[in-house]
Amino acid sequence: MGNLIGVLLGAAVFCGGVYEVVKRLRLQRRMLRATGVFVGRDEVMGPGGPSTTSRVGRFRFTTPQGRQVEAASSLYSFPGPKPGRPVTVVYDPAGPEETAERLGVHYLQLLAVGPLLMAIGAAVAAVNAAAL
């Protein structure tokens, strides 16, 4: 019974990886690039829980329609980017506030997160399926 649960859990993680890759690829087709500037840093809860903090870069850019958008990157760093430094941003014109991200972070999420989840899910499912 435990191995069956392991197979199902591995399949679920694999499907989550597929979902992430498909979502990022669809977003990739709609994304536009813009040049922005870092305007500050936000202190957020770090991966270690409430006792640790990390810094994310806050950036601002202007869409071709003249709309100013400010967003925070999803990548933590220490000490964080310096305000005033230029940055290339990608975003979906349908929702720039929700989708704006630094170019390198977007590619990292596309090429690493989804495939990593798929590999872990496949390995967990395969190990548990072999033990059935």
Defining key terms:
single chain; about 130 residues; alpha+beta; 3 helices; about 35% strand
How much helix, percentage-wise, in residues?
40-55%
What amount of the residues lies in strands? 35-45%
Going across the major beta sheet, what is the strand order? 3-2-1-4-5
Give the number of helices.
3
Query: If you compute it from the alpha carbons, what radius of gyration comes out, rounded to the nearest whole angstrom?
Result: 18 Å
User: CA-to-CA gap between the ends?
Assistant: 9 Å
Mind sketching the topology for me?
Layout: H1 2-30, E1 32-46, E2 49-62, E3 68-77, E4 86-91, H2 96-99, E5 101-102, H3 103-130
Antiparallel strand pairs: 1-2, 1-4, 2-3, 4-5
Structural write-up:
This protein is α+β, with helices and mostly antiparallel strands. The chain is 46% helix and 36% strand. It contains 3 helices and 5 strands, in the order αββββαβα. It has a 5-stranded antiparallel sheet with strand order 3-2-1-4-5. It is elongated. It starts with a helix and ends with a helix. The relative contact order is 0.26. The mean pLDDT is 88.
Summarize the model shown.
The protein is an alpha+beta fold. The protein is 46% helix and 36% strand.
